Amino acid sequence: MKSAIMGEVSRLKKELYLTAAAKYFDETGYKEFKITDLAKELETSVGTIYNMFGSKEELYVEYLILKLERFLKNLNDHESSDPRENLKLYLKYKYEIFLRIDQHRNQPITNDPYFFHKLDISNHTVVTDIYDFLVRQFKVLLPLEHTNHMHVAILFKKFSDGFIESYLYHEFETSGIIEETIHWFFNGVGHSPIANNAGN
Q1: Which residues contact 124 (CB under 8 A, 6 or more apart)?
Q2: Both 165 and 93 in a single domain?
């Protein structure tokens, strides 16, 4: 009984530490994040944090999983019967992670160049569940017998990653980024206004 209680206490403590760490990662990004600063905030020792998470890199992976779990919850909580709108929902939550959008202007978050390390947790169940969400939408939108819907879902994920990477390299107007992503994916870049104006 005592060991079960201690195990639950340890789990809750780790959860609280991770919540605090997530706040710091959100504010500073991976590169500027310091375990010493987190330890001061939590009024604990650096050693205690390392005993829980092993390293800054392992703590970051836990952070990524937490963010993706929240991302998936938003998708599941707001999924509708309209697959195209669900793809827009996916993009809305995905882009909001990297762009603070308010009613007047876009405020970019460019302090975390390690975003693409999300790929390091590609074998985690939360990643599989997010792909399953996309697959459900494409099965309705592309109801062709021999279509590999997982392949399409992966391509869509990578395509939207490209918008984020492009923005980190060179900022651009993002007010229509969701519609633009959908349009380009289904119709091709050659049919975009940018491509059509390229020869002018």
Answers
A1: 65, 68
A2: yes
How much is the pTM?
A: 0.80
Beta-carbon contacts of 149 under 8 Å, excluding residues fewer than 6 positions away, are 135, 138, 139, 142
Residue-wise pLDDT tens digits, 110-167 = 455 445 445 557 778 999 999 999 999 999 999 998 999 999 999 999 999 888 888 8
Instruction: Yes or no: say if 62 and 18 are a contact pair by the CB < 8 Å rule.
Output: yes
Locate all alpha helices (DSSP H) within 83-176, ordered by sequence. 83-96, 125-141, 149-169
- Decide if 75 contacts 89 (C-beta within 8 A): yes
Q: Tell me the sheet residues that pair with 99.
A: 108
- CATH code at 117? 1.10.357
pLDDT tens for each residue of 79-119: 999 999 999 999 999 888 666 644 444 444 445 544 544 55
How many structural domains does the chain have? Answer: 2
Return d(Cα 134, Cα 165) in angstroms, integer: 21
Q: Same structural domain for residues 112 and 94?
A: yes
